[in-house]
């Protein structure tokens, strides 16, 4: 997948992909976007990948982007199509295995499960 090979490129184009999350009939596209979000969170938005030489503003923007992607994944747990919900849960599982889920999101995940 492109998100695994070039996660920063996909991350920069996320605003172009987000309208497809609202398309009722494009469940395959929603599933692919969810998987791309998971790949980006694993490869780009890991807490240990934040460069200490970045300024405080860049670090804050990095963390805001990560929180927005995690919120998107959390919202998609309630998707009306089971295929998309399956992809979301697989993505959360991948994030947990890679230790990419902040402690602040564990309670939300457990409540949904």
Percent helix among the residues?
Answer: 55-70%
Query: Which shape, going by the Cα principal axes?
Result: globular
Number of strands: 0
Structural class: mainly alpha
Which spans of ≥5 residues are poorly predicted at pLDDT below 50?
none
Task: Give an account of the 3D structure.
It contains seven helices and no strands. The chain is mainly alpha-helical and 113 residues long. The longest helix is centred in the middle third of the chain and has 21 residues. It is globular, with a radius of gyration of 14 Å. The model has no long low-confidence stretch (mean pLDDT 83).
Concise summary:
By secondary structure, this protein is mainly alpha-helical.
Write the layout of secondary structure elements.
Blueprint: H1 2-5, H2 7-12, H3 14-17, H4 27-43, H5 56-76, H6 82-97, H7 103-112
Task: Output the keywords.
mainly alpha, 7 helices, 113 residues, 69% helix, globular
